[in-house]
Amino acid sequence: MPSDVLIVGGGPAGAIAALVLARVGVGVTILDRAVFPRDKLCGDSVNPGAMALLARHGLAAQVEARALAVSGMLVTGPYGAAVRAIYPGGVVGRSILRRELDTMLLEAATRAGARVEQGARVVSPLVEGANGTRRVTGVFLRTRGGAVARPARVVIGADGRHSSLAFALGLARRPRRPRRWAIGAYFDGVAGLSDVGEMHVRRGHYIGVAPTPGGLVNACLVVPEARARAIGSAQAEALEQTLQRDEQLGPRFHHARRATPVTMLGPLAVDVGSAGVEGLLLAGDAAGFIDPMTGDGLRLAMRGGELAAAAALEALEGRADAHIRLAQRRREELGGKLRVNRALRSLVDLPVGVSLAAAAARIWPDILGPVINYAGDVKSA
Q1: For the chain, which terminal residue's Cβ has fewer other Cβ atoms within 10 angstroms, N or C?
Q2: Distance from C-alpha of 220 to C-alpha of 178, rounded to nearest angstrom
Q3: Distance separating alpha carbons of residues 23 and 5, to the nearest angstrom
Q4: Half-sphere exposure (CA, 13 Å, Cβ side) for 115?
Q5: What topology does CATH give the domain 3-44+97-176+269-347?
Q6: Is 109 helix (H, G, I), strand (E, B) or coil?
Q7: DSSP letter string over 198-229?
């Protein structure tokens, strides 16, 4: 007997989609190749808008109890440019390790009635029909005996920016530019921390710095493809040297010690032309991924999970165009935010753009305040 809904990927997007569906009585199974808790390279930032979303589902208090409060953002550029903006009205975001947040959300979905199968590797969609009439009717799981079909009335692909489902159906592609890699690790002994998240934009790279519960600091360096290839396997040295040689960050990391192995991943960006096909709905990074410099990735992912769940309910009611309606809702609600994020991504890709932005920030510091509030989804909070 096929499941009502199979969700491929148990991260924030998949877990929120499962939570919404299970709470209204839909039979949901989450398949994830990882075993939780698992580490994931991320900024560990739950912005104010994401906290508001979690509050709608009764999950905010649980996150608040295990997270650090984040009251705003510090953005710096070359030549000493720096802007520190505090979210208005006492609104705050949170900083929490992804291994804790993801496990928390998955457990909430399980309590609501969703089934979770960990260590389940989905390799491709189960498709009926040809290009013009194709419909996803389940997925293939890799097992020791070979690929096994798992049918479902609806599939939600929330399996990340390397989505096996989106790429197999030709829905996703990696853009030719910008192509960036992220290199990250946790450090202790970092000086000069406060209750704000940090983004340090430089010519040719940018660095995110975020304090996390327990005293560790998340430091992530994002570099273009050419530099990533030059770095090769010397990822730890590249990260540590970039931090220590930075004019503003160097003194703060002088006595710091790297506390975890370094993780490198890329290329980061993924463009997706459709929110799915009949029988398949995309959510989270599987629906498209933009370089993570704005700190709003978790909010976009979880809201995408909510929208996919709503579309799944329509598909279960017999609407063959649920994926088209999902695409329209994503454009209406998330399109503006994604366009701004792409514009910022393009800006930091150009040395002259970084210089002009730094000059503007020095002359008119208030220029970045509205941008920081927009990135933090303060309005939705």
Answers
A1: N
A2: 18
A3: 13
A4: 11
A5: FAD/NAD(P)-binding domain (3.50.50)
A6: helix
A7: EEEEETTEEEEEEE-TTS-EEEEEEEEHHHHH
Domains 3-44+97-176+269-347 and 180-266 share a fold: no
- What's the alpha-carbon Rg for the chain, to the nearest Å? 21
Comparing 352 with 125, the larger pLDDT belongs to 125
Distance from C-alpha of 282 to C-alpha of 286, rounded to nearest angstrom: 6
Cα(34)–Cα(40) distance, rounded to whole angstroms? Answer: 11
The more confident residue out of 61 and 361 is 61
Distance in angstroms between the alpha carbons of the first and the last residue of the chain: 41
Rounded-to-integer distance, Cα 102 and Cα 175, Å: 28
Tell me the whole-structure pTM to 2 decimals.
Answer: 0.91
Which sequence spans correspond to the domains of the chain?
3-44+97-176+269-347, 180-266
Mean per-residue pLDDT for 300-320? Answer: 96
Q: What is the CATH number of domain 180-266?
A: 3.30.9.100
> Tell me, what DSSP letter sits at residue 289?
B
Q: What is the pLDDT of residue 242?
A: 97
- Residue 329 corresponds to which tokens in the numbers above? 């809702």
Whole-angstrom distance, CA of residue 197 vs CA of residue 103: 23
For residue 18 the two structure tokens come to: 């499962």
